Amino acid sequence: MNAAEVFDTLGLEYQRAWSHQPALHGTLAWFAATQPSGSRVLDIGCGTGVPVARTLAKAGMRVTGLDVSPVMVDIATTQVPDATFHKIDIRDFESPPGSWDVICAVFSLLQMTQAEIIQTLGQISTWLRPGGHFFLATVAVDVEQVTLPWMGQEIEVSSFSEETFEAHLAEVGLRVVRRSRPVFTPSYPGAMPEESLHLVCQRP
What we know:
This is Methyltransferase domain-containing protein. By secondary structure, this protein is α/β, with parallel strands linked by helices. A seven-stranded mixed sheet has the order 3-2-1-4-5-11-8, with helices on both faces.
């Protein structure tokens, strides 16, 4: 199944399983405390809009969410009326240089190829204003298009190790300012603890 089909199927079940990650909420609280009201936020792979878009919109930021799943976009539009949501693949998205203060990609780059992830990181760096921040949450494992069972679906995943991610970020001019490797057990039957990688980067 492609990403749109997977997340159309999961809908609010995805939110119930994943939205209460303490480390994720901690990073969002840091953004809410450090970014001025009115900051322009791009939420790549926004899902249901909870918690990323909702938290940052409540903090007074102007949030735009993008997702390939029409079901997710509809749910997000209902749940977070203070933000704007569009059904579009980030690989097809265009934005002027320096047009965003904060860009978030919370587990949304995993269903690309490694080459597409690198290309997207370059685009993100261009879209950020100087001094702007990029928040990446992902799984730090060096794999290319591996098919895995996940929440009753089959998904195809690509990613990099932490060191390789940091190298690719540095190549596009993004400097890591906060990093963590939180472990979280999602709320669905048979779920096991999973380690993720959270990197907050700044464009100098």
